[in-house]
Write a structure and sequence with these properties.
mainly alpha; 5 helices; globular
Length: about 70
């Protein structure tokens, strides 16, 4: 499962949402949105994505699950 391409795809899409929101730094995004910087870094690296964290990030970006997962 470590090499599961779906996890990388989800992590990359989360990173792209951050970049699209104008954040070049994951630390600044995490700080501005009340997230743990380390936890958020793990999300973007695909090391630790819980459903609860995913939903929180999607809420921050105002993206639905349906929109996030379409095209995957």
């Amino acid at each position: 499962m470590e090499d599961d391409k779906r996890i990388k795809q989800i992590a990359d899409k989360i990173k792209q949402l951050r970049i699209n929101a104008g954040y070049t730094s994951h630390e600044n995004f995490a700080w501005d949105n009340g997230l743990s910087r380390v936890q958020y870094w793990r999300v973007e690296s695909g090391a630790n994505i819980t459903l609860k964290t995913l939903l929180k990030i999607l809420d921050i970006h105002q993206v639905t699950l349906e929109d996030f997962f379409k095209d995957m």
